[in-house]
TrEMBL record:
Domain called KARI N-terminal Rossmann: residue spans: 29-229
Gene Ontology molecular functions: isomerase activity; ketol-acid reductoisomerase activity; metal ion binding
Residues noted as binding Mg(2+) 1 in the record, renumbered to the chain: D234, E238
Residues binding Mg(2+) 2: D234
Keywords from the named record: Amino-acid biosynthesis, Branched-chain amino acid biosynthesis, Isomerase, Magnesium, Metal-binding, Oxidoreductase
Family, similarity comment: Belongs to the ketol-acid reductoisomerase family.
Domain of life: Bacteria
GO biological process, one term: L-valine biosynthetic process
Protein name: Acetohydroxy-acid isomeroreductase
Amino acid sequence: MTSTNANAFTSAVFPVETMDVPGGIETILRGGRHLFPLLPRAFAGVRRIGVIGWGPQGRAQAGNLRDSLAGTDIRVAVGLRPGSASAADARAHGFSEGDGTLGDWLAVTAESDLVILLIADAALAAHHREIFEALKPGATIGLSHGFLLGHLREIGGEFPAGHGVIAVCPKGMGDSVRRLYQQGEKINGAGINSSFAVHADPDGHAVDRALGWSVALGSPYTFRTTLDSEYRSDIVGERAILLGAVHGIVESLYARFRLAGDAPVTAYERSCENITGPIARTVSRSGLRAVRENLDPAGHDVFDRAYSATYGPARDLVAEIYDEVADGTELRSVILAEQRLGARPMTEIGGSPMWAVGDEVRGRRAGRDLPVDAFTAGVFIATMTAQIDEFAERGHPWSEIVNESVIEAVDSLLPYMHARDVAYMVDNCSRTARLGARRWGPRFQAAYEQIAYPASENAADQALLDAFATHPVHEALAAAAKLRPSVDISVA
């Protein structure tokens, strides 16, 4: 990591500030509802925002933008494909054909000054040309991750000339983006952090437009990245610690604990329940080191051996995923899988034995204070650190590293997994993330079972432990924590 402020930006509308990070500073925008009166200035030249798609992000972003811009002359409309099954739900959330806030996706595109593309990745790959052709002159294209950039590179395509291209990428699932925004009406501006990127800026207003979009989503803080960097970190993270790796961890740990003689409920509590519950809460509130520090001396040894044995195999897999994302292999596998599956429903992964006891475990939570399992903690923290180190080595800014590797996990995804389970999350996320988790989760599981767990019988690697104890990520997380709203997501 360099010591320069590589992600520096200025704003003619919002008061930006700098945040100290390891080796330097980063420019950020601290969000909050007190900034909503500035949104018309940020969206100068924008009178209509079209949100294309009604998946979890589409539903959340359309609702947040509409509510934040209430009382202004900027209207938010949702565009759906003809015959979309989502139309009824969009109407139930207050969008309608009668007032012009719900319509055909190409018609909404043609009428909008900012077109936010939130349809499924495969649909975007198949239909982006139609959308580009429908754009009104000078309209800005908005994205919430860089999949389309990767696809255009694969096919030798480009974004249309004369149009701004910006991205605002919430570091959490759509339900979290909406739920925390609604909680933020009463609790210190709660929300999900976002990155932003400017890929094309023909009129010179792209930065403020992107910042306005992020503020309107309720982001507590916004940091700058590039569309390429965001795409890589987002796709890798989905396949690693955010989804794929965590599925591989809990499946492998459950099997390990069962083989050691634990009853099904106990094995579930020591694996899945531990990661989504006490481990996630500890990291969220107190950081990575606190997970180990809060253990007793005997737990330190167990954690250390699990961490030492897991870090290397996990780092190898994260590096492999990163390489395949960077060279387009992972994107091609997603497109091929979508073409192969077509409209057929994807099989679910929640049928393995461990998920049968999930309801019983969740029913036992009342009045219980489940302790952190030292072995599980070592495996999970080692995997998280492996992703952190891979991102740092590849040159990602610290805000992106801690959000994609830690904050998104413990403040957005793991709380939902705790409310339901990991398998439920895998089976109900976006198809791109789902395909990635199904591909890489078993790879992580095999690496843990075949390499890490046998090696955990050996003494801990003191050099690895020293590197963890003094890791710059602790400083970066502490800086980010100062911007964290004083609220935990409420998951029904």
